[in-house]
């Protein structure tokens, strides 16, 4: 995790542990539309609906990010992450 990710995590943890979709996408370093598409396909981090609004718990985002990174390094495609 880079310094920017640590800064974002620290700021998020100081407030509510729940982030809306736009905040969650920023936290993960992706576009909100990408996160919405992942939700629609049944992929991506676990989310909750509070009053009809989509919310992500920061621990779920961290867990999903770690599992995704671990999957990239497991060699599922026969290549290491970063190989062309």
From TrEMBL:
<dbReference type="Pfam" id="PF12728">
    <property type="entry name" value="HTH_17"/>
</dbReference>
<dbReference type="GO" id="GO:0003677">
    <property type="term" value="F:DNA binding"/>
</dbReference>
<protein>
    <submittedName>
        <fullName>DNA-binding protein</fullName>
    </submittedName>
</protein>
<dbReference type="InterPro" id="IPR041657">
    <property type="entry name" value="HTH_17"/>
</dbReference>
<dbReference type="InterPro" id="IPR009061">
    <property type="entry name" value="DNA-bd_dom_put_sf"/>
</dbReference>
<keyword id="KW-0238">DNA-binding</keyword>
<feature type="domain" description="Helix-turn-helix">
    <location>
        <begin position="18"/>
        <end position="64"/>
    </location>
</feature>
């Amino acid at each position: 995790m880079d310094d920017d990710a640590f800064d974002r995590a620290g700021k998020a943890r100081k407030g509510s542990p729940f982030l809306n979709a736009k905040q969650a996408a920023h936290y993960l370093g992706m576009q909100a539309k990408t996160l919405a598409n992942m939700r629609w396909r049944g992929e991506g981090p676990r989310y909750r609906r509070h009053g009809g609004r989509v919310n992500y718990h920061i621990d779920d985002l961290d867990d999903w990010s770690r599992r995704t990174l671990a999957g990239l390094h497991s060699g599922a495609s026969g290549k290491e992450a970063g190989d062309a």
